[in-house]
Amino acid sequence: MNFVAPLTAVDGWETLARETRYEDAHLLVTTEEVRTPAITNPRRWTVVHRKPAVVIAALTADGKLVLIRQERIPIRDTIWEVPAGQIDEPAEMEPEAMQAVVLRELQEETGYVLPPDGELQPLGSYFSSPGFTDERGHFFLARGVVPSAEGHAHQESESILDCRAFGGSEIRVMIASNEIRDANTLSICAQLIARGFLGLDS
Q1: Would you say 83 and 105 are in contact if contact means Cβ atoms under 8 Å apart?
Q2: Looking at the whole model, is its pTM more than 0.70?
Q3: Residue 164: which CATH number?
């Protein structure tokens, strides 16, 4: 997988060995021997390497957050979440290319687009579960989104059943009632609230 760090020392982290356990188009599972900055004796750790992703907070002109309702096979459930998508090639990590991924995923999954007077802003990144995977989500805010005349273009592998825009008070209730419970959505909502883009009483 092109996104996996090479076997070199970086900032005191030294990967001494890496053994592949499983690999497909979406992930790479390895067992690695690593020397850390704080522990000189090497440690063995199983790591799930995943491609990075874009995670999108799509806000309408009236400040509502667009969510999709999607079936998720690993948890055998259907949940409300923000749109997101993997970055397939290292070249797509360049700022302009990553923004193109954001706009493509937004339209494909929600049927919304960013108009010429809209705003696209990066909001940092996060790690979904750093105890076992290096998967990293890059947050983007798309402000002023509008429904596209073409509608959505879901991929065959996706099972998106609904798409709606929710006000801040609805989002608060959905979080408090555990209706929103995926890491992407909870994390990007925290960013939106911290930066003043989403008010939970609106």
Answers
A1: yes
A2: yes
A3: 3.90.79.10
